[in-house]
Amino acid sequence: MTPARLLADAVVVFHLAFVAFAVAGGLLVLRWRWVALPHLAALAWAAYVEFSGRICPLTPLENALRRAGGAAGYEGGFVEHYVVALLYPPRLTPETQWMLTIAGFSWNRECNWKGSG
Question: How many structural domains does the chain have?
């Protein structure tokens, strides 16, 4: 395996960790209060990318590294390529997506609020 492909894999691992932190980082705030600010920043960035229709800069970086390592890149974004079936089942409506987002924000807000008290 080439160094570029190893770096592309590292980008994927980092990207997955970032998504997990954005979604569930509120739990860490319950233990470590200092995590609240970076978690809220990650949550805001994830929501911006998701609802603006933009592609996270890590996706083109991963694709460029894959191509540099001799592998094919992919079209679309990270979520569409790796976790679309899990996060976006075929019957997911925009209304349900918004409800889940509001529930996620509310849950994380509650964790952040309790963690800061």
Answer: 1
CA distances from 117 to 15, 27, 34, 36, 103 (A): 30, 14, 12, 11, 21
Contact of 11 with 61, CB cutoff 8 Å: yes
**What is the amino acid identity at position 114?**
K
Smallest CA-to-CA distance from 39 within 115, 112, 117, 113 is with 112
84 pLDDT band, cuts 50/70/90, is low
DSSP 69: T
Q: What's the pLDDT tens digit per position in 22-62?
A: 888 888 988 898 998 999 899 899 888 878 878 888 888 98
Phi-psi region of 80 (alpha: psi -120 to 50; beta: other; left: phi over 0): alpha
Task: Return the structure tokens found at 99.
Answer: 């409800």
State the Cα–Cα distance between residues 10 and 52, nearest whole angstrom. Answer: 26
Domain around 106: 3-116
